[in-house]
Amino acid sequence: MAKVSAGVATSHVPAIGAAIDLGKTQEPYWQPLFQGYEYVKAWIKEQKPDVIFLVYNDHATAFDMDFIPTFAIGCADEFKPADEGWGPRPVPTVKGHPELAAHIAQELIQSNFDLTFIHKMDVDHGLTVPLSLVFGQVEEWPCLIIPFAVNVVLYPPPSGQRCYDLGKALRKAIESFPEDLNVQVWGTGGMSHQLQGPRAGLINKEFDNNFLDRLIDDAEELAKVPHINYVREAGSEGVELVMWLIMRGALDDEIEVKQRFYHVPASNTAVGHLVLENKG
Fold first, then answer.
1. Can you tell me the distance from the alpha carbon of 253 to that of 220, in angstroms, rounded to the nearest whole number?
2. Spatial distance between the Cα atoms of 189 and 167, rounded to a whole number of angstroms
3. CB 188 within 8 A of CB 9
4. Catalytic: 125?
5. Which member of 125, 227, 263, 273 is catalytic?
6. Quick check: 215 and 244 in contact, CB under 8 A?
7. Is 59 a catalytic residue?
8. Domains in the chain, ordered, with CATH?
9. pLDDT per residue over 9-50, tens digit each?
10. Is 240 helix (H, G, I), strand (E, B) or coil?
11. CA 106 to CA 45: how far, in whole Å?
12. pLDDT tens digit string along 185-220?
């Protein structure tokens, strides 16, 4: 049977992708940030996941204001890098796992989570930047990837509780799949940032580190935090952090923290990163 072995959380700042693509990772501004991802690069080579279920949000690339699903699962064989206005990133095409994706969709819908099926979709920096941070610059991604897009762009997004509960149902769905697979669940987005208005450039280190503490040790209570708290404390885009709760819900209640990293700034954003392993 398939097994959820670990979770990864990371920000997906588009400027990080540009720094990688343009060879700027060792410049003084960027080097401290990329140093924080050296651990996960070595760790992932040892873990060798077969499939990554990657939770991210689209940034008006695959979807626009005419149509934004709350939860959308990618069920295609492949997903190409999106052109976000300056050409597609020079990264590999994402190879999917349609059989596992269809199984997860079946199980989650039967568990009362309404999903949108996606059979054709380009994936933007929300998905490709985390892959680049963990795997580096490669000719092919070394495992299969199931994109799972969450609406955190158009209000109202799903609640933290809904995301956390979905994570728990997701684990049951994955572990009922009758193939021996090592599966990881990744949550991406955040941390505190606001891209527009009088509070543009907002970074709240205290909020971010409290979120990391609670995600590790107090996730059930953290899931109850309402949207308005994220907006007030972490900026209008800080609500992306609810996607990390899907990852956390898919793991054991007590987990082993293999890596914790926090850095500011990256462009005008705070960057957080966790590597969590199930103990079983």
1. 9
2. 16
3. yes
4. yes
5. 125
6. yes
7. no
8. 3-278 (3.40.830.10)
9. 999 999 999 999 999 999 999 999 999 999 999 999 999 999
10. helix
11. 31
12. 999 999 999 988 999 999 999 999 999 999 999 999
Distance CA 121, CA 82 (A): 9
Which residue, among 174, 235, 243, 184, has the nearest Cα to 215 in the 3D structure?
243
127 CB neighbour count, 10 Å cutoff: 30
Alpha helices of the chain — where are they, by DSSP H?
14-21, 31-35, 38-47, 98-110, 125-135, 160-174, 205-217, 219-222, 227-234, 242-249
Give, for 270, the enclosing helix (H) or strand (E).
Answer: strand 269-278
Length of the chain: 280
Name 240's Cβ contacts closer than 8 Å, sequence gap at least 6.
Answer: 57, 152, 188, 189, 190
**Catalytic residue of the set 97, 103, 193, 263:** 193
Enumerate the β-bridge partners of residue 60. Answer: none
pTM to 2 decimal places? 0.97
The candidate with the shortest Cα–Cα distance to 41, out of 273, 278, 280, 279, is 273
Cβ neighbors of 267 (< 8 A, separation 6 or more) are: 13, 14, 15, 16
Q: Say which residues have a Cβ less than 8 Å from residue 131's Cβ, sequence separation at least 6.
A: 54, 91, 94, 141, 145
Residue 170 CA to residue 177 CA, distance in Å, equals: 11
Q: Is the peptide bond prior to 265 cis by the omega test (within 30 degrees of 0)?
A: yes
Both tokens of 85, joined, read 């206005």
> 29 is written with which tokens?
């501004």
